[in-house]
Each structure stands twice: as structure tokens, then as C-alpha cells.
Amino acid sequence: MYRIAIVDDDAEQCAGLHDMLRDLIPAELDCEIGMYASLGELDGRQVDIVFADICLGDGENGIEEVLQMFADRSAVQVIYVTGHVEYCSAVYDTRHIGFLVKPVRRQELADAFHRALGRLRDLREQPFAVRFNNTSYVVRPAQVMYVESKLRVAVFHGENNSAVRTYMKLSDVAERLPSRFHRCHSSYLVNFDFVDAITKSDFVLTDGTHVPISHRRWPGSNDAFERYMVNPDE
């Protein structure tokens, strides 16, 4: 899932951008769009892409807020949206991937949105480090067949019975991995790249492993796998 935040103190502008974005998102892409009047409302929220107005209510400056909130969150893709072209240089004090001038044109919005998605996909493909029992291990997403959650421990299962463990919630693990990883059970994520078959109760992987699918999650898991087979790069 990709979590998108639109921040604009003008409710009409916010809703208009929301509707344009919703039209641009393909059906197979799992996205959640939230609308906010202030960047401060994002404090503590998990977000992947932020469309931020620069001149917000009560004198709030979007550039300064982005600098404070996302300086150490390089994975967050920031796209500025403003009616003030004079800020086109000031935004370079912050990490961002787009600068859109109101009224926003559909094609420019689409271009910025797809750049952000591409960057997120690239980041989620990168190896990352986890710790367990005072040792650091490298997790390489392309080599992970499935992830299992056991008593607050996430186990990354690879080929040839290899496994890496760390203390992490499964929901947090999902945020670190590419979209081809699907949560099919409260305790499992499966990498569609390694799926050979799907039944009413589990995914059958290339090495014969059966990853369970909960009854509640089966319809969504089946739909997600069918979409993946049509568009594996999404």
C-alpha cells in the first residue's frame, strides 16, 4: 500500500487534487489518500507521498514544515503544490521530487506522481539491515520468499531454508518491502515472485512451501495475485 497525503488549507483545492489523483491511480495499485489542512496533522502518521501546499493557514510555511518533519525520512516523497512561483528556488532547501503550480495540470500531476511511485519502488527494492540478538543482518527483498510473524519476531524466509529474524511488527515489515509482497494472513506476507499456485487455503511456493491464506483475506489475496500476474511491475 502507498499512503498519500494532500495538504492544503483550501478545502476546495484539496478536494480537486484528490479527485484528479484518484482518476490517475490504476485499479491494481493499492493507495490510500488522506486530506489535511496542515502539515502538523501528519505528525506521527505513516505516509509515502505528500502533496504539500506552501502557503498554509496561520502563517504556516510548507517548506519550513517539510524541512522539520521529513529531514530524516528520506523515503517520503514530497511534491510541492503552490500558486506562488516565487518559491521555485526556496524549495531546493528541502528534498522533494516535484513542484506543481496551481491550477495543476493533469499531465504535470501524473508525471510527478509517477516519479514518486518509481522512487518508492526503487527504495523498497534496496537491501536493508535488521538486528536480532546483538547481530545485524541484511535483508534482500528479492531473495525473500515469505515473511512469518511469531511472537513479535518477524522471520524473513529465503530459499534453501535460510531465515533472518528481527523484532518488528508485520505491518512495519510490509512498509519496507515492494508491493509484490502481500499480506495474506495476520501472520504472513508472501512474495508473489515465488508463488506457483493458489488454493482456497494457501499459496504454494516454488520450493513446495505452503503459506496460509486466512478465510477473511482470501478474496483480496486472490484478486491481488491475479492483478500481479497481469502487471507484475506494479
UniProtKB/TrEMBL annotation:
<feature type="modified residue" description="4-aspartylphosphate">
    <location>
        <position position="53"/>
    </location>
</feature>
<dbReference type="Pfam" id="PF04397">
    <property type="entry name" value="LytTR"/>
</dbReference>
<dbReference type="InterPro" id="IPR007492">
    <property type="entry name" value="LytTR_DNA-bd_dom"/>
</dbReference>
<dbReference type="GO" id="GO:0000156">
    <property type="term" value="F:phosphorelay response regulator activity"/>
</dbReference>
<dbReference type="InterPro" id="IPR011006">
    <property type="entry name" value="CheY-like_superfamily"/>
</dbReference>
<dbReference type="GO" id="GO:0003677">
    <property type="term" value="F:DNA binding"/>
</dbReference>
<dbReference type="InterPro" id="IPR001789">
    <property type="entry name" value="Sig_transdc_resp-reg_receiver"/>
</dbReference>
<feature type="domain" description="HTH LytTR-type">
    <location>
        <begin position="128"/>
        <end position="227"/>
    </location>
</feature>
<dbReference type="Pfam" id="PF00072">
    <property type="entry name" value="Response_reg"/>
</dbReference>
<protein>
    <submittedName>
        <fullName>LytTR family two component transcriptional regulator</fullName>
    </submittedName>
</protein>
<dbReference type="InterPro" id="IPR046947">
    <property type="entry name" value="LytR-like"/>
</dbReference>
<feature type="domain" description="Response regulatory">
    <location>
        <begin position="3"/>
        <end position="117"/>
    </location>
</feature>
<keyword id="KW-0597">Phosphoprotein</keyword>
